[in-house]
Predict the structure of Isopropylmalate dehydrogenase-like domain-containing protein.
Amino acid sequence: MYSFFFCSLCGSYDLGMENRDATDDKVTIEAAEAVRHYNVGIKCATITPDEKRVEEFKLKKMWRSPNGTIRNILGGTVFREAIICKNIPRLVPGWIKPIIIGRHAHGDQVGIQGYRFRCSRSWKGGNDIHA
């Protein structure tokens, strides 16, 4: 899997650590602005460098999380939704209604304490939702 940010309308953006370092992380900003402009985007997993990665990859600095940068540019909300294609078999074949997670985190408030909700209806996983 590549750490490329792809949008068929606006191209692709390499959000790998090496390219983020080479562009002084401008590529992350360009990718987020493209999503804001076209109202769509798909982002693969990326690595947020820690001290060991900075040393290992000889990076200029410890770059911030690309997820945080993108969330802040988009106003704090990122939806995580399964991409379903008819011609690609699902891991769980009977799963026809995927769960969509809308994560609102703004100003790098990712590390704040989570919340626990009680559901009005039970489901097979129990009746607690952790956010």
